[in-house]
Structures are given as structure tokens and as C-alpha cells.
């Protein structure tokens, strides 16, 4: 499995020629440097509906004639916009093109801005994506919560992507605790430095993890790692 980071919380997951893109906030993302029209993917997978995660979902799904995989209400919203969609919910798993996608809890909120309306689109989720015997955990936007321990006990996680920006999600100190609870040896920090309210020193976070015996994979946009 190969992971490529596109800034903020967007991660491309590849295995045996198939590609999933998670939370494709690209055209409005000052970090990404990626043109959404250049992407070739087999599915868009969403953690929740906020604009800095939903991003270019509809455009990418239509251009690639591929499904949006999301919690039921958000999938229904995507379908209403003309995109193919597949609805799931917390605790459920779905096997698609060699990937097994499982949705976990995340504690946050979830809505889309549609014109002047804010529309509720179901609860936010984290994602466990397994392929080729490897598991990647994308926590989505979340605070620290005790069931992260259970997620770590139930699954063998190779890489965990955790938000560290604070203000809207957990900050670095709580993310370091989450890293211990999910028992991943490698952590990809997400959701930081995109906007002023979530500025963080990722080097300090990496040092904090190093003291815990955990490796920090602080990727720049378009950088990749093998799982």
C-alpha cells in the first residue's frame, strides 16, 4: 500500500493499481498544489462533509465516473448532486477493488454548505483501510476519545493519520496520546498549518512522538510513503 499526502487531510491510497482519495480538499487548499482535474482515482472516500474535506468531491467523482463512499446521509447528498455514491455507517465494512473500508467513530460535526443553507449530512467518521495485509487508519477530524484505545486493540494499524491542529480537532499533546492508544508505529500528522487557527510546530510534535518510540511521517504535499 502506498500513501500520498496532498495537504490538510487529503490522502491518496494506492494498492495494485487501484486508487482511493480521502477528503479531496484540493482547489481551495493552499497546501495541495494539485489540480483536481489531473487526478485518476477509483473512488472518493469521505470522513465528513465540511468544505475543507468535501472539497472537490463531486467534480472528481464525475470526472472519473467513480463512487463517493461516505456515511449514508453524506452519500445521499452526493447522489443528489449527480455523483455515484455508496452509503455506509459507523462500524460497517465494505470491500471494494481489493480495499476493505471500515468506518469508525469520530467526535466532531458534519455539514455541507449548499448556497446559503447549512445541511446536516450524518455523523463524522474515521476510516480503517486495509489492503495487502496492511492497515491505514485515517482518524478524520476528531477530539481525543477513549475508544481510540479499542480501535487500537481490535486492529493492527500500520500507519495512523491523526489531526494535530487544535481549535477544530485535538491538538499535538492529545494527538500524541491518541498515537499511543491506536498502537501505530508510524503517524502521519494531518489538519495543521492550512489556516492561521490551526498553526502548529510539527517538528515539536515529531520530537514528542520520538520520545514515545513512535515515528512521525511529516510529509509535504505530493510526498509518499510505503506501508
TrEMBL record:
Keywords: Hydrolase. It comes from the Bacteria. Residues 7-191 form the Metallo-beta-lactamase domain. It catalyses: 3',5'-cyclic UMP + H2O = UMP + H(+); 3',5'-cyclic CMP + H2O = CMP + H(+). Counteracts the endogenous Pycsar antiviral defense system. Phosphodiesterase that enables metal-dependent hydrolysis of host cyclic nucleotide Pycsar defense signals such as cCMP and cUMP. Belongs to the UPF0173 family. This is UPF0173 metal-dependent hydrolase MJA45_12990. It comes from Paenibacillus aurantius. One of its GO terms (molecular function) is hydrolase activity. The keyword ATP-binding does not apply. PANTHER family: UPF0173 METAL-DEPENDENT HYDROLASE MJ1163, UPF0173 METAL-DEPENDENT HYDROLASE MJ1163-RELATED. NCBIfam families: PRK00685.1 (NF001911). HAMAP family: UPF0173.
Amino acid at each position: 500500500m502506498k500513501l500520498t499526502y496532498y495537504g490538510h487531510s487529503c490522502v491518496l491510497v494506492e494498492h495494485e493499481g487501484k486508487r482511493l482519495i480521502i477528503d479531496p480538499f484540493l482547489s481551495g487548499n493552499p497546501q495541495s498544489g494539485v489540480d483536481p482535474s489531473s487526478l485518476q482515482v477509483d473512488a472518493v472516500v469521505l470522513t465528513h462533509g465540511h468544505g475543507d474535506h468535501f472539497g472537490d468531491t463531486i467534480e472528481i467523482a464525475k470526472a472519473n465516473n467513480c463512487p463517493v463512499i461516505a456515511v449514508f446521509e453524506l452519500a445521499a447528498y452526493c447522489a443528489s448532486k449527480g455523483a455515484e455514491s455508496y452509503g455506509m455507517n459507523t462500524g460497517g465494512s465494505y470491500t471494494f477493488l481489493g480495499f476493505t473500508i471500515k468506518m469508525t467513530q469520530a467526535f466532531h460535526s458534519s455539514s455541507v454548505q449548499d448556497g446559503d443553507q447549512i445541511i446536516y449530512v450524518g455523523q463524522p467518521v474515521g476510516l480503517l483501510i486495509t489492503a495487502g495485509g496492511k492497515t491505514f487508519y485515517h482518524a478524520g477530524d476528531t477530539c481525543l476519545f477513549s475508544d481510540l484505545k479499542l480501535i487500537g486493540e481490535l486492529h493492527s494499524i500500520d500507519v495512523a493519520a491523526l489531526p494535530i491542529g487544535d481549535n477544530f480537532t485535538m491538538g499535538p499533546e492529545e494527538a500524541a496520546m491518541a498515537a499511543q492508544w491506536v498502537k501505530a508505529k508510524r503517524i502521519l500528522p494531518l489538519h495543521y498549518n492550512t489556516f492561521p487557527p490551526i498553526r502548529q510546530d510539527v517538528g515539536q510534535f515529531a520530537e514528542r512522538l520520538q520520545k514515545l518510540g513512535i515515528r512521525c511521517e511529516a510529509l509535504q504535499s505530493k510526498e509518499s510513503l510505503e506501508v
